[in-house]
Design the sequence.
């Protein structure tokens, strides 16, 4: 098909929801030479939300996290124990290779180190012990909460391995398609420009509902090693799976019922550490199936913002049926802290559960915030020093727009723009329909932000990249913590999105802005 | 875009004079007999990235221009195509290195003129002839010297270093790309030795300076002194000091994004630097900028007295007005608009769609004004229109008279003088139709057209950034005639600079250069 592999890889990685990647990321080795001084400089500026660098010191030692470069440029996480006076490294422990988000550190004077990491859609936890010699040892293995896999899935009914280094043709297991199915598949794949190959016969694997059939095709007169994927339903219909996002880098396709899952190699040396799985509905409209859709998206990741299935009344109660259908993202661990590691006293001090939807008029936001002391706007108190939410489009220090939802009098919430599109500080009022309400142990915010008010929120389908932070001020005037999930959003007309819509969003991400 | 082209475009934007010529014509760019690819663009006004895509048809033939650029807005290879009335290509001429072009004449006898702008923003006119066999031949080509802005009136000239009597001047021998330590030659009053020593130190410690301090040379006016020091062997470090001020490095290279300093002139506290760079076989590229020494240093722009918006080679500059307009559709009667530079779009070169239907400035034309308030951008459009057609039930706003502030916004005319700002494209270019709350627009009919005024608050109009900022806008009046079509689109492209104050600080100028390259 002439599609560059790198292009598909980029598209794929942006969409993939990690499945058990963290659980497989197992290398736990030293990452620094004891005795050497640490030259790392932690970036604690909240403008750098993706920084993995954290440091917590006690009287005698410091624990620091930073990115670790493994062989072949692969990255992981390094935890260092430092002498508080000399800054010399006394011990280290590493995790990876893999893609680890911001870590959270909780360090006791006795040398107990609780490390929280965000991996894809999950929160992982490991406890380290600093020994009397200053070394770091894991006392518990890395565990993820909640289990990412959800209920165990039945094994695939068949699969096809994509030709690669070890084989030249597709090798399929399971029930093979009948000659009739093969003929149907070949007919569906044949076009004047790309006729089905005569030399290479189609292969396939069947479930009880149908057959995935792989038809080698030619590019003009050349047999260029390309193929086309066809689903032949047991009831008769034939559906060509047009341009799946992982066309270029899937190494295996599974068939399970009416679901087709592509296995993708993320390119790590330790292949098991970064395998991904992307599943599609075999029957049109081909949908991108999201794993664990029913469970909370625990942390950083892609959030598919879908339509409200019924009208939402913005009143702060969050009880509209539409919200029940929306996916929830939870930020309640130390790793979700963007700012204020020392001040944070646990989830009851500050944490957030967040949902996003859209309707014809704009974007809908529901946030349930746990906060043991709610500090709304008050005269004479700077707004940043009161409890509020922030919508932040910044990434890795790139200055970008930032918006705030401020808790005002009479349950009103005012939307302000705090940074313009170039990242300069402003304070502009913007129109919105937002309400907040006190709740036991915190407060709730419900919001409709009309279309166009926040410039970088797109039409549907379209991508965006804002994170929602909850800012906690237990004392009026002091911003103590800022925490939340790092998100990128895909606004879609239905969840899960159709393959066509998912592809459109990926194309938009690559396209030049007007 | 290649590095050379990018640089050429950049220099052109900086208001430089480019003597070299790249735009050329003469060769065919379409195969005779093929089906033309230009006819369909006429019917799609949303094809705004190919603005000059337009077709004129005569009794025996049609002529069209097609931008073959892979990226919109880039200097490109344009193609002038002649077809028969069935759309089959009979002849063509390539226009390479052309930034923009319009067919300005197509006679029944086959005389075809094109007016365009080359990479150096020089206007050229190409005269061609369609022969009886349908082929196209170039007859003549004339080029106007000097840069011009996009589809706008001629700018007021930038201040030139030698436009006033100089009190002090230092000239630097061009180094021909080889680093040189030959010191500049300075005329005028000699500075104090302490100032030169301080200047040498400042240049030696500036970014990229060599370890070995080199003595500086300089000259003084009655109220300030300048000195030049060597930075890594090249005399491009300029230090200034006004009476009572501290010596400091003047950031000419950053302001201009250039190197190749050849001269620095000082008059009062105004310092003007000239840079010369190789411009290829056609000549050199010369650039200059003037800075007022002060705290902070300020960039000298050719702002006419009392003007709050003015035009120069780089674009349309605005600063906050003291008295803001009243948005009621009365432009001529509002004194706030008085000191604002008009931007007329009155000729066929401003017709970006529907040239064949355009009947002249009385049919559709517009004079724009842009001004900056404390919290908003103001827009005024004095439209020439012989048939005012606001939106009404049964007539879509896109087919009624309206303004387009491309790429994102439109002003829709509604009954009873109301007008509304709508967002017609989201930030990724997807078509939408969203109301922009907080913006206020009004219009008023007058003899021969209508006046439209808008207040576009920063924040509510999300595409605008707080000053200092720049915005590349295509301002368009879309003329509707009551039919379900856009009859013609008349407009002008504006590189809008929003300054906090005039003259702007050098830091703000550098910020804009770096943020909006």
Sequence:
């Amino acid at each position: 098909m002439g599609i560059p592999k790198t292009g598909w890889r980029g598209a794929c990685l942006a969409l993939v929801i990690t499945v058990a990647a963290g659980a497989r990321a197992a290398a736990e080795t030293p990452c620094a030479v004891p005795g050497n001084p640490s030259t790392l400089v932690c970036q604690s500026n909240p403008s750098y939300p993706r920084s993995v660098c954290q440091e917590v010191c006690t009287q005698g030692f410091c624990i620091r996290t930073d990115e670790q470069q493994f062989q072949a440029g692969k990255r992981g996480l390094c935890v260092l124990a430092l002498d508080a006076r000399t800054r010399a490294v006394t011990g280290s422990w590493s995790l990876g290779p893999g893609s680890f988000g911001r870590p959270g550190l909780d360090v006791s004077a006795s040398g107990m180190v609780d490390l929280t990491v965000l991996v894809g859609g999950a929160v992982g936890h490991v406890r380290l012990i600093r020994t009397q010699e200053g070394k770091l040892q894991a006392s518990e293995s890395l565990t993820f909460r909640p289990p990412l896999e959800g209920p165990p899935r039945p094994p695939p009914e068949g699969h096809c391995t994509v030709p690669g280094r070890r084989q030249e043709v597709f090798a399929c297991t399971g029930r093979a398609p009948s000659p009739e199915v093969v003929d149907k598949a070949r007919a569906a794949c044949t076009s004047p420009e790309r006729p089905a190959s005569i030399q290479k016969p189609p292969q396939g694997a069947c479930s009880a509902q149908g057959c995935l059939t792989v038809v080698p095709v030619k590019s003009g007169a050349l047999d260029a090693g390309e193929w086309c994927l066809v689903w032949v339903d047991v009831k008769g219909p034939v559906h060509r799976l047009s341009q799946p996002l992982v066309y270029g880098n899937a190494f295996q396709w599974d068939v399970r019922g009416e679901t087709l899952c592509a296995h993708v190699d993320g390119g790590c040396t330790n292949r098991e550490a970064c395998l991904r799985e992307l599943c599609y509905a075999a029957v049109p409209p081909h949908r991108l199936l999201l794993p664990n859709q029913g469970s909370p998206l625990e942390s950083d990741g892609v959030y598919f913002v879908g339509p409200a299935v019924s009208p939402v009344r913005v009143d702060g109660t969050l009880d509209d049926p539409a919200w029940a259908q929306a996916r929830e993202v939870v930020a309640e661990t130390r790793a979700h802290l963007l700012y204020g590691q020392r001040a944070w006293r646990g989830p009851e001090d500050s944490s957030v559960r967040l949902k996003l939807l859209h309707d014809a008029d704009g974007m809908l936001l529901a946030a349930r915030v746990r906060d043991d002391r709610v500090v709304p706007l008050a005269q004479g108190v700077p707004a940043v020093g009161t409890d509020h939410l922030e919508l932040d489009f910044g990434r890795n220090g790139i200055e970008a727009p930032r918006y705030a939802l401020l808790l005002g009098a009479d349950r009103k919430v005012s939307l302000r723009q705090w940074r313009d599109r170039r990242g300069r500080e402003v304070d502009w009022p913007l129109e919105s329909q937002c309400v907040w309400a006190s709740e036991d142990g915190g407060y709730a915010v419900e919001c409709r932000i009309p279309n166009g008010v926040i410039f970088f929120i797109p039409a549907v389908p379209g991508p965006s990249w804002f994170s929602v932070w909850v800012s906690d001020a237990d004392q009026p005037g002091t911003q103590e913590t800022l925490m939340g999930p790092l998100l990128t959003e895909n606004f879609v007309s239905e969840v899960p999105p159709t393959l066509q819509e998912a592809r459109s969003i990926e194309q938009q991400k690559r396209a030049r802005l007007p | 875009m290649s590095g050379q082209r990018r640089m050429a475009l950049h220099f052109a934007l900086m208001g430089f004079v480019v003597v070299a010529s790249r735009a050329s014509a003469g060769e065919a760019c379409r195969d005779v007999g093929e089906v033309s690819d230009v006819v369909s663009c006429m019917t799609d006004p949303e094809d705004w990235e190919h603005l000059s895509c337009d077709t004129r048809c005569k009794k025996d033939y049609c002529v069209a221009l097609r931008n073959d650029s892979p990226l919109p807005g880039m200097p490109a290879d344009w193609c002038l195509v002649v077809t028969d009335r069935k759309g089959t290509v009979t002849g063509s001429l390539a226009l390479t290195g052309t930034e923009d072009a319009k067919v300005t004449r197509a006679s029944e006898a086959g005389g075809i003129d094109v007016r365009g702008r080359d990479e150096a923003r020089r206007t050229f006119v190409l005269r061609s002839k369609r022969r009886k066999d349908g082929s196209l031949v170039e007859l003549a080509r004339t080029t106007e010297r000097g840069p011009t802005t996009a589809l706008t009136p001629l700018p007021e000239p930038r201040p030139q270093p030698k436009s006033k009597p100089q009190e002090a001047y230092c000239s630097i021998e061009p180094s021909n790309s080889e680093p040189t330590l030959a010191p500049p030659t300075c005329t005028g009053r000699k500075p104090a030795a302490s100032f030169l020593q301080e200047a040498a130190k400042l240049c030696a410690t500036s970014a990229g300076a060599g370890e070995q301090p080199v003595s500086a040379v300089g000259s003084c006016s009655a109220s300030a002194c300048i000195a030049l020091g060597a930075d890594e062997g090249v005399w491009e470090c300029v230090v200034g000091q006004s009476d009572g001020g501290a010596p400091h490095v003047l950031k000419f290279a950053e302001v201009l994004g250039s190197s190749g300093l050849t001269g620095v002139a000082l008059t009062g506290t105004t310092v003007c630097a000239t840079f010369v760079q190789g411009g290829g076989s056609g000549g050199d590229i010369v650039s200059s900028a003037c800075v007022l020494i002060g705290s902070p240093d300020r960039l000298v722009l050719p702002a006419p007295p009392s003007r709050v918006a003015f035009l120069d080679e780089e674009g349309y500059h605005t600063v906050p007005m003291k008295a803001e307009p009243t948005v009621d559709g009365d432009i001529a009667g509002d004194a706030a608009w008085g000191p604002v530079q008009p931007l007329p779009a009155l000729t066929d070169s401003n017709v970006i769609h529907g040239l064949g239907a355009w009947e002249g400035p009385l049919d559709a034309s517009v004079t724009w004004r842009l001004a900056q308030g404390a919290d908003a951008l103001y827009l005024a459009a004095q439209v020439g229109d012989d048939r005012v057609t606001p939106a009404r039930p049964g007539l879509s706003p896109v087919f009624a008279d309206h303004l387009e502030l491309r790429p994102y916004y439109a002003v829709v005319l509604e009954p009873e003088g109301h007008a509304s700002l709508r967002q017609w494209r989201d930030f990724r270019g997807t078509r939408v139709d969203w109301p922009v709350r907080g913006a206020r627009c009004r219009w008023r009919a007058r003899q021969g057209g209508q006046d439209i005024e808008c207040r576009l608050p920063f924040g509510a109009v999300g595409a605008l950034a707080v000053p200092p900022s720049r915005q590349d806008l295509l301002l368009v009046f879309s003329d509707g005639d009551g039919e379900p079509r856009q009859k013609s689109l008349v407009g002008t492209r504006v590189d809008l600079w929003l300054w906090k104050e005039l003259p702007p600080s050098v830091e703000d100028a550098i910020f804009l250069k770096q943020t909006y390259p």
Q: What stands out?
A: Chain A has three domains: 5-16+152-289, 21-145, 301-495. The CA atoms of residues 213 and 346 of chain A lie 52 Å apart. The two ends of chain A are 29 Å apart (CA to CA). Chain A touches chain B at residues 417, 420-422, 424, 426, 428-431, 450-456, 458-459, 462-463, 508, 511-514 (CB under 8 Å).
